[in-house]
Amino acid sequence: MEPPMTSHNGGVAELKFRDPARARSLADALTRVVGDIDRSPVSIMHVCGSHEQAIARFGLRATLPRSLNVIMGPGCPVCITDVPEVDEGVVLARQGVRIATYGDMLKVPGTSLSLADAQAEGAKIDVVYSVAHAIELAKQIDEPLVFFATGFETTAVATAAAILRNPPPNFYVLSAHKYIPPVMEIVAEMPDTRVEGFLAAGHAATITGWGVFEPFVARHRLPVVVAGFEPLDILAGLVRLAELIRDGRPAVENMFPRCVTKDGNLRAQEQLWRVFRPIGGRWRGIAHVPNGNLRLRDEFSHLDARKRFDIDLHTLWDFAPAALAQECICGDIMAGIKSPHDCALFGKACVPHSPVGACMVSSEGTCKIWYQYGGHPDLGSVGRTLSGPSEGISDRGYCAR
Amino acid sequence: MATVLDERITLRYGAGGQAMRALIRDVLTDGLVREEESGAIGLAAMDDGAALRIGNQWLVVTTDSHVIQPAFFPGGDIGRLAVSGAVNDLAVMGATDVLALTCAVIIEEGFARDDLVRIQRSIRQACDESGAAILTGDTKVMGKGELDGIVLNTTGIALTDRVVPDAGLRVGDVVIVTGTIADHGMAVMARRHGLALDADLKSDVAPINSLIRVALDSAPGAVVAMKDPTRGGVASALHEMAEKSRVGIVVDEQAVPVADTVRAAAELLGIDPLHVANEGKALLGVRPEAVDAVLMALRMHPRGRDAVTIGRCVGERIGSVVLDTGFGRRLVTEPDGELLPRIC
Amino acid sequence: MCLGVPGKVVSVDGSIAVVDFWGVRKQICLDVVDQPVAPGDYILNHVGYAIRRIPAEEIGATLALYEELLRHPPEEDDLMAADVRSEIDGAADDQP
């Protein structure tokens, strides 16, 4: 019996949700539906860095209709982790406390220094792939280990699960987790927003369920479609969203039924909210998001790095914040109001190896993605005068081993 | 254009990408570049090696230092890497018949003798495979903590009638890769980061001079550019070739050969296989009329069975590498610094 | 949110499963998944935790859902619709 997600040729390449032929059909359908909408451009927003990554990685923008504007909103967890939070991690590290962090956060600049900078100065920083890995590490050492907990609710669930299962006494959590639904409200209410619909993140919805968007839709009369991350998932999600916009139907639709249900994963939610409480907080560039930050409940204050350690942010004041930071418009970019090309620093003073704003640091940051993948270049015609690159290719395609 | 702005050299500068090139160009070679006679390849070219005219032949010279951690990894070790690295650098300049290698070792105090013996056996084995001989070397020991285990440096020299540079691509030329990519880097990364990936990931580290030889002989003059995609992966190597040759390159992502386990491991860690180092593969730029002959010759060789065309040179987007994903198109990015597993 | 690559469960030992992602095996924690997981199941992994068991029948359902999207072309596009349908039929041939 074949694994159901691959065709009989096997292999990752044959994943049904990456079938180029179906993708082309869906792209054509999208062009048709968008063409039926009597406005141009039609703007929709997604709020997930992974959606932007997938769109960029698969080069999907080259196949989207020109009149469809797919904006990346504040969905990059690294980018919206605010400066004071990064500073907290940096200060702790420079105080000699050992920090475990996801790789994504390592190079994000705080006021002036990133964890990587601290590491270059001798701080002990461990890059982990999972909070479970950090727990294992804590068990092997005597000194305190602070887990710099970043990411949205999907990632916060893992942190919660780890906290609830008797972590070793030297394990602490510095929580910078975020919760996405509140920020969609903020974007929908921004006066400059022209967003007509939202593509919601499939994995976060796996946890929260799609029902969580119903009040939003009722309030703002904007459709929301939950989509997965494979090329077919994204294209199908966009087609459905375009249809809802065309038909003027504000509704929530689930285009990721293999993973998302209306109520979501209750077991995960229960653990999440047992450990964390939502509080209002700053998101980098967006200022205040009510209920957008997740902090440890009092019951877990024995693990809370903020309670255990005296994090003196004043020690960073010797490092003058870059004057360039004043000119950074990451906030507007993350809100979808401006694009990287609108930024005077983009590609000049702000580049991946010397970033000013977080959007340029994270692999899911709009600016980083645009810089690396070349913005939205018109690549469709490159090389077309030659016969296609597949001429002379072996009939092997991928080589299975 | 990246320039060296940092006051302190960070790990990024050793990672094989733009930063490293900037460091070499702006700092290390400053004031050392001299005018080379026609056809000679010197410092300015920043090629895999140098080429000097000797009579009616070219003497090709390359040098490499090896600092890999861990010293032993699935599929090989630092010894095999040291020999293969030098042999392959010579080979991708067209010099497949190695005259001699040197090998210098710097050993950290406390390094296990048995490990040293294992490494030496690997060196011998790789020399046998490549037909290269080590003629001289150097030995140093440094105090505990002053060095990370062991460092090897190899220099290789060879003679050739024809040097194949990085920079010889023209519009219409085809890019061939000699086999599956990202094997080495993924095997090492999985081991190094203790990522608890139980998988059959093995480095491809091997000398490929005989493989290159059959390609060159199959279509004399038609292999016009070569590079081995080590640090920085196929992405960096293609960027360099495109920049130096002043062409654009369009790559067909669906054609790029990646072993399933390697692709799965890369996917899990959020890493692009095009960014990952290879130590037993080469990229060949070939005149279109000779592609079939070159592919056939490569595939008949045990190390070239999976050789395949992956791209074409075009006259637009000079210096860029465009990826046709099958779903759309985008630019190929270059890794910026050390590859880190990412969750998002 | 990110990197939720589906993997196939090879073995389960309490709250840890060994999951196979096309030849790469990882230990995945089952502490937050809301259904019992058994060898042969597919799970969605996020940062080393299974967040969902993916029922095999759902995959077909999702594909069918996507195909539905392609059955609503307006009348004047019949030629294209015919093209599109034949592409789907062609792709459907490689279902197991």
Question: How much of the residues of chain C is beta strand, in percent?
Answer: 25-35%
Q: Biggest interface and its residues per chain?
A: A-B, 63 and 62 residues
| Biggest sheet strand line-up of chain A | 2-1-7-8-9
Enumerate the strands of the largest sheet of chain C in spatial order, edge to edge or round the barrel: 3-2-1-4-5
Given the structure, what is the number of helices of chain C?
A: 2
Low-confidence stretches of chain C: 73-96
Mean pLDDT of chain C equals 72
Q: What is the succession of H and E elements of chain C?
A: EEEEEHH
Count of distinct strands of chain A: 11
Q: What's the multimeric state? A: heterotrimer
What is the global morphology of chain C? Answer: elongated
Q: Using the CA coordinates, give the radius of gyration of chain C.
A: 18 Å
Backbone CA Rg of chain A: 22 Å
User: What form of chain A results from the Cα inertia axes?
Assistant: globular
Q: What percentage of the residues of chain A does DSSP assign to strands (E)?
A: 15-25%
Low-confidence stretches of chain A: 1-14, 386-401
Query: How far do the termini of chain C sit from each other?
Result: 29 Å
**What is the makeup of the main sheet of chain C?**
5 strands, antiparallel
Which range best describes the helical content of chain A: under 10%, 10-25%, 25-40%, 40-55%, 55-70% or over 70%?
25-40%
User: What's the overall average pLDDT of chain A, rounded?
Assistant: 83
The secondary structure category of chain C is alpha+beta
Can you tell me about this structure?
The complex is a heterotrimer of chains A (401), B (344) and C (96). Chain A has helices at 20-36, 49-57, 77-80, 83-94, 115-120, 131-140, 153-163, 181-189, 202-208, 214-220, 231-246, 266-275, 305-308, 330-334, 366-373, and strands spanning 42-46, 68-72, 98-102, 125-128, 145-149, 171-175, 195-201, 224-227, 252-254, 276-283, 287-296. Chain A has 15 helices and eleven strands. The radius of gyration of chain A is 22 Å and the shape is globular. With 344 residues, chain B is an alpha+beta fold. In chain B, 28% of the residues lie in helices and 25% in strands. In chain B, helix 2 (78-91) runs parallel beside helix 3, helix 2 (78-91) runs parallel beside helix 5 and helix 5 (209-218) packs antiparallel against helix 8 (291-300). The two termini of chain B are 28 Å apart. The mean pLDDT of chain B is 90. Chain C has a five-stranded antiparallel sheet with strand order 3-2-1-4-5. The radius of gyration of chain C is 18 Å and the shape is elongated. The two termini of chain C are 29 Å apart. Classes of the chains: A alpha/beta (401), B alpha+beta (344), C alpha+beta (96). Chains in contact: A-B, A-C, B-C. At the A-B interface, helix 2 of A face strand 11, helix 7, helix 8, strand 13 and strand 14 of B. Strand 9 (197-199) of chain B pairs antiparallel with strand 3 of chain C, so a sheet runs across the interface.
